[in-house]
Amino acid sequence: EAAREILERVEERSDNRLGVEAMGLLEAYGIPMPDSEIVDSPEDAREVAERIEGDVVMKIVSPDILHKSDIGGVKVGVADEEVPDAFEDLITRARNYQPDANLLGVQVQEMSDLDAGTETIVGMNRDPQFGPLMMFGLGGIFVEVLEDTTFRVAPLSEPEAREMTEEIKTAPLLRGARGRDPADVDGIVETIQRLSQLVADFPAIMEFDINPLVATPDGVDAVDIRLTVD
Ligand code: ADP
Ligand code: MG
Description:
Elements: H1 2-12, E1 17-18, H2 23-28, E2 36-39, H3 42-51, E3 56-61, E4 74-78, H4 83-97, E5 105-110, E6 118-127, E7 131-138, H5 142-146, E8 149-153, H6 158-167, H7 171-175, H8 185-201, E9 205-216, E10 219-222, E11 225-229
Antiparallel strand pairs: 1-11, 2-5, 3-4, 3-5, 6-7, 6-9, 7-8, 9-10, 9-11
Helix pairs in contact: 3-4, 6-8
This protein binds adenosine-5'-diphosphate and magnesium ion.
Magnesium ion (MG) is lined by residues 211, 224.
């Protein structure tokens, strides 16, 4: 129900591309995300940062800026006292990039443990011939460099989703290569299945990417999302 309302609101908008403002969709489907809030003032940003323990990540939220780090719209490891300045700086960068950009605010987000975790990507592209094509691969900078991805037509059974995590070339990384603790592969498998259910329930969703889905030994975190609605 919550998911339906979110998508109905999008359909009333002129643009059809969504970013972190669609977090409610993942929430409705039980896909874990780092704690975060979208704020519209430096004071609120600081308040949220103080509530979230440790340093935070801050990101510009705008349907006109979907590749946030390309314009310097992502600040990682921000300490509480730096938060108000970081807020102003993100808004300035967005305005410089596109003066008439529709700015929805700034997301203040809990840090995921990238040292202990692996950045993966879980996505869907609706293929005119095959229907919803689920994708899994290594995320972050590696997704372009290694092109280590695998595809399956949704809906996916649990064994099919698990196969996806086993057949990429870098699968050993997830299983704990070089003395690292293994990532929560069950969490990845569940996320692939939940996303495949989400896109099956909403045929209007044409593309959906979780990039990165950070997989640590303790669980998974959908850190960034992007989707296109018909
Ligand atoms: P975009 O893809 O629009 O540039 P992301 O939200 O994916 O923006 O952020 C870019 C990169 O910053 C991520 O791939 C990740 O490496 C890092 N990052 C973003 N959010 C977090 C977070 N909560 N914890 C740790 N690293 C993060
Ligand atoms: Mg991203």
